[in-house]
Amino acid sequence: MAARIGLLGGTFDPIHFGHLRAAEEAYQKLALDKVIFLPTAVPPHKKRPDLSPFSLRFEMVRLALSGVPYFEVSDLERRLPKPSYSIKTLEVLKEQVPGGEFFFILGFDAFLEFETWYEYQRIPTLAHLIVVTRGGGDEAAFAAKVRELFPESKQENNFWWRLPRGFSVRYLPILRLDISSTFLRKAVKNRESIRFLTPDPVRDFIFAHGLYAADLASPGAREDYDKSPE
Ligand code: NAP
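That is the input. Now the predicted structure with NAP docked in place:
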């Protein structure tokens, strides 16, 4: 039987429990064999001059996944032409794993802008689209968006739309964890705690490398940070 492979692309600057939970729920609910995390080298849609280097974002993902046998991280997009277009990544993965059945996981916000993605219509000719939605409750908006993007799709039920060529678009409600990378970056800059929002090894890595607040890497700064009053 073909391996069922989830793909979660992201800027991951930094990775947090929201990303991990989305991958975990997709893994379990869709009976995937594994989920590959794909840090983007140059995000096509985010022009952030302060973007952390690929090697550091990759390392944070690697640390976050450690000990989970069905999660892995790939540096594929570092090696592909920039910016990192998802369709190009999928084409290469399809060649690398010829028999694999791919499930491209993305959040609802990303899905609402899907028509801005490079050659977006070709993406579900290579992979199923799995739209993870924090808390659920957006079924009507999801249905309207699927109709707009893929008028040729056929609705099976509120959660599942069939596309030509055997692929589908699925709506996957997941636990709502209102954590964002933007929040984490701001919190570090403002000396607010990020404990319990990202795995401890990622938190340690952020401090050790002075990510989001360069002066935090200096001796003693970490202790001051941990004890800083509200
Ligand atoms: P990100 O901010 O690191 O987030 C990665 C994914 O995790 C997103 O789909 C996001 O969904 C989801 N997520 C974030 N916080 C979450 C939470 N608390 N709970 C559950 N899910 C959460 O990455 P990104 O910068 O949006 O990039 C996503 C991927 O899309 C990348 O692989 C990028 O290359 C790709 N992309 C491709 C194109 C293109 O091909 N032209 C254009 C744009 C993006 P939400 O969007 O809902 O936050």
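The domain at 4-174 is CATH 3.40.50.620 (Rossmann fold).
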